[in-house]
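Lab channel / #folding
Pinned by the channel admin:
"Please post every new chain as: sequence first, then the structure tokens as a reply. Keep commentary short and put observations after the output so the thread stays searchable."

First post following the new format, from NK:
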Amino acid sequence: MLICTMAVALLLPLCYLPGGEKPVFPLAVVPASASAMEVRRVTGLSFSAPADVPMHTQTFTREQLYRGRLLLLDAAHPLPGEAPDPATVPIATYGKGVVPVRALTLRSGQETVKALSDLFSQLRSHGVTGFVVWRATEPVSSPKEQHDAMKAMARVRSLEAAAEAVHTRYAHTGRESLQQAFSVELRMPLPGTALPDERPLEETPEGRTLLMLAWRHGFVRAGAEGNAAFCFRYVGKAHATAITYLDVSLEEYLALLHEKRVLTIREHGALYYIQCSPASGEYMAFSVPEGAACEASMDNTGYALVACTLPNEQTKSPAGS
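Reply from TO:
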């Protein structure tokens, strides 16, 4: 019997089906480093361009690239000045009652809210109803804003308590990704309280179900620890599928693409083709499949990426995939 890694164990319901049926998605050999990544028993994933698909050139502007969803954001990679202000909508309104929120003021990107609606609908079909959007898009805070918040809290709290509250509010792990319109923090409130359940998602049945389903709707986790472990970024199905298949973090995924440059995935007849190239100039040209829906993004480390999706009827899945 094959032995899955702990990271893949959460996806056992997807990896193994009764009666020896073919897995829903392939497994990757756990690498010692990104450069050592290898794929085993996977005919539908390769680090090469698809040979059976006609291509054409598509050009993206630098502005389009900075509107993308793959910017690496953390303490070492702050939001670049070229990134536009997030375009957001009220989650409660655009979620049409399907997406529960902790506060009616929470906002996110329209595509993100649509993906959340689909995710929460599937969670309900699996009997999971406890999650709510705990935090969503938050603007970048200025030093003046933090100073004003400190003064306001110091009026009703001790100086030490006020400083701790401001630190929690503005400097918590994972807040960087909430500066764009693609990330949300999903939590289960503790019964009868206004506090979130702090147990890791891996330790609860509801959390494991969320992890099992999120990537199928284009979401990946922002990190593995602290608040980031509850923060999910909408990157689209192509990137979310690749990150899940390879069992890597977003940062590891970007590093792998820097080296490999291309990645092709075939799943149930659909094709995802992902490319990476050093960013330069005001325009970036990529060779993309004809008829594909393409999404481009900077990655905040000097590279540009484009993910292309071809619908089922336009691809030819290789034999045995």
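NK: The two ends are 21 Å apart (CA to CA).
TO: also worth noting, The chain has a mean pLDDT of 82.
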